What we know:
The chain is an alpha+beta fold. It has a single domain (2-120), classed as 3-Layer(aba) Sandwich (Aminopeptidase), CATH 3.40.630. The chain has helices spanning 10-25, 32-41, 44-52, 103-117, 132-140, and strands at residues 2-4, 56-63, 66-74, 88-94, 122-128, 144-153, 156-166. The strands form 2 sheets. A 4-stranded antiparallel beta sheet has the order 1-2-3-4, sandwiched between helices. Helix 1 (10-25) packs antiparallel against helix 2 and helix 1 crosses helix 3 (44-52). The chain is globular.
Amino acid sequence: MYRIATFDDSANIAVLSAQVWLHNYATEGINTAISDYVLREFTSQNIAKKLSADDYKYIVSERDGNLIGLISLDFSSICPITKTTAPELDRLYIQEPFTGQGLGSQLLKVAIKECKNLGYERVWLTVNHKNTRARAFYNRHGFEEIGETYFVLNEEQHLNYVLSKSIV
């Protein structure tokens, strides 16, 4: 089941986000920078704040009443390459036991339909250069690399590729 998230989902979104982020990016263990980021970024309060914003949306996937995946859209984001405002697919997180079942593809399809319905012609995202599984996923769904940017964590720069897709 796919639906637009509500305030009641805030804690579950925060925990699932932290879990998936750690699984993908804390591959060499936990350090202070990682702990500080996760504890600061993935909170119920931060999620609730985004849910109350007009320019941000979460779409969630559930199974048996449990949150197993999500995608978030930031409609006010400026693409670092094109310098234009277009919907950013901010996060696409699937809990690891549920990967490979088509959930990510379905969430992406629902998110792109939402963007089309709102009159947008293009979506974009960033992906860590080491995340080959995600890069292959987006490539299969028609996203093209248009440039590079960096995610900064505790003054360390981590290379991300900027991907974009026409949705007209």
